[in-house]
Amino acid sequence: MAKNHQDKRRDGVSPQTDELASTLLGDALDLLAAGEDLGVLLVIGDDAGHVASYRFADDGEEQLLEGARDRVAAVERAYGDREADLGEPVRYSLAYEGAVADEAGVYQDALLFEFGEKGYKAYSAYSYVKGKGTGDRFQWTDAAPAGEVDPLL
């Protein structure tokens, strides 16, 4: 039986992808603390350390998420984004609002994020959030893993 492409990907996360995802997570939490609707936030990085940021808004949640994922594919096909001074993409992260069931099965507001890198498996994670728009009273939990997702690169 032949192995598929996903089986050849490495486990784990490179330090560069970890930094990209962590920075996006912090930015998204700041926006939620300020009471802003995120839509879908996307960052794409190249090997030279350049990062392009995108924000998808003014549509349904599924359409926004699909638009962000499509942007990753488009940037890959174009070998980068010249307007954003981004070379060929090698890593990405995206963040959006949603809900995740807690241990009791009750859905709680959460910040969801996905991240991946060429040659690696892609992952998702979440952070429960409370008090959107309350500034310094805004609360969040440490990020928790949510499992593997289909890689975009």
Topology:
Elements: H1 15-33, E1 40-46, E2 51-56, H2 61-77, E3 89-101, E4 107-117, E5 122-130, E6 139-140, E7 144-149
Provide structural commentary.
- The chain has 153 residues and is α+β, with helices and mostly antiparallel strands.
- It has 2 helices and 7 strands.
- Helices cover 24% and strands 35% of the residues.
- Strand 5 (122-130) and strand 6 (139-140) form a beta hairpin.
- The two termini are 25 Å apart.
- The longest helix has 19 residues, at 15-33.
- Strands 1, 2, 3, 4, 5, 6 and 7 form a 7-stranded antiparallel beta sheet that branches.
Distance N terminus to C terminus? Answer: 25 Å
Structural class: alpha+beta
The major beta sheet can be summarized as: 7 strands, antiparallel
Helix content: 10-25%
Beta-strand percentage?
35-45%
Uncertain segments are none
Order of helices and strands: HEEHEEEEE
- Cα-based radius of gyration, to the nearest Å: 16 Å
Short description:
The chain is of the alpha+beta class and 153 residues long. Helices cover 24% and strands 35% of the residues.
Features:
153 residues; alpha+beta; seven-stranded antiparallel sheet; 2 helices; globular
